[in-house]
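Thread: magnesium ion complex, take 2
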Amino acid sequence: MTTLADPVPGGRPGDVERATALSDELSDRGVHGIVLSYVDTAGVGRVKTIPTAKLASAAAWGVGMSPVFDTFLANDSIVATDVLGSPDGDLRLYPDLDRLAVLAGQPGWAWAPVDRITQEGERHPGCSRTVLRRIVAEAAERHGLTFKAAVEIEWAVGQGAAADGEFVPATTGPAYSATRQVELSAYGVDLLAALAAQDVDVEQLHPEYAAGQFEVSVGALDPVAAADRSVLVRQTIRAVAARHGLVVSFAPAVFAQGVGNGGHVHLSAWRDGVNLHSGGDGRHGMTAGAESFAAGILDHLPALTAVTAPSPASYLRLKPSQWAGVFTAWGRETREAAVRIVTGTAGLHDRSANLEVKPVDLAANPYLALACLIAAGLDGLTSGTPLPEEITGDPARLDPADAAAHGVRRLPTSLPEAVAEFRKDERLRSALGPVLADAVIAVRQGESAAVEGLDDERVAAAYRWKY
Ligand code: GLU
Ligand code: MG
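Output below.
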């Protein structure tokens, strides 16, 4: 379990002693530096690093960093809101000692996600990790609910020697093929070893559909830990690739055409240790709460895409009939519905039933994405929103009248459309708080302006190596 407590200047009781012991142990293991990691509003992972000997000081007083990164774009230019984007001010980054991992793919380094607080010791309203922690804590207090989540990671493996900016797949084997697995055998096994050494429990690693594409799925954790894990897994995938002379792209669309990289989110709600998605009287064993939770996510999906598909390149991926789930539809094990109900196999329903949300990619800040998905689900659950009729097959094949009758809507086809939906969605904006909601809008508008006039191939190229 991730601690739900905020960092405190001077450290919480025991933090400094613990960090001191940890830094001694890390030094003995040959760890010289610690990567302090967070994800900005645009979805780019940003870091500072400290020598291992400074861990106790970081646990007590944090490490300085400008708040300006909250309004950075993926191309490193800066936009502004009323509150954020100014060159003034400083924040303190506090490593979460519970989530510190020694990086097997980067010998000599450890890694820890950070919470950001102000110099005065207040929560920083732009910190997405803090916002997710708050939403999880409130769900526990007000509704007695906890959650389990996991983010699937898809990525394309390219030749390191390719011309600057180009992507040339490192394997040409067919989708899901043994050829692909064999050609990148050494990379794959080093990746599995590195993830195991970092206590990431991998469910499976497989060659995917698109050129050079692979996918890893990992075990579910509480939402903050799941978001941390998604960042750590990507850091590891990239680092191990570099040791093999390979490059990786997590971009939603490596090319303008064809299947992209998804970051599907699996999510389940639990009360008193009981999974709400199984053992109920609803469809496929869902309880009434689980049906309404799914309905809440479906209702908010058009606005959610501004958070779960935050890049102009996200809309190159979000096309019908590519398993990216671009319609507000749900179904059991339906790979074209935006929300797929996963029951698990007989004998495992109570442990493994969950829902999968597909229109999510890896440009999404995973803390923001999970915060908004949980807020949307809770909105449905507390309002008792009815779950519409199930859809089977590809919703793209429904004729318009049928689609309308079933409440099946195409999700936004561009980032500006998604932002317009997000602006109208007061529930999501208030879940994030006004400072972060404004940052989401400003950053998305900045990204849209940055690609004005570019054709699809150029948009794909602009974001190919950013995430
Ligand atoms: N690559 C697909 C996507 O963009 C997902 C394929 C799958 O279902 O694993 O979401
Ligand atoms: Mg996949």
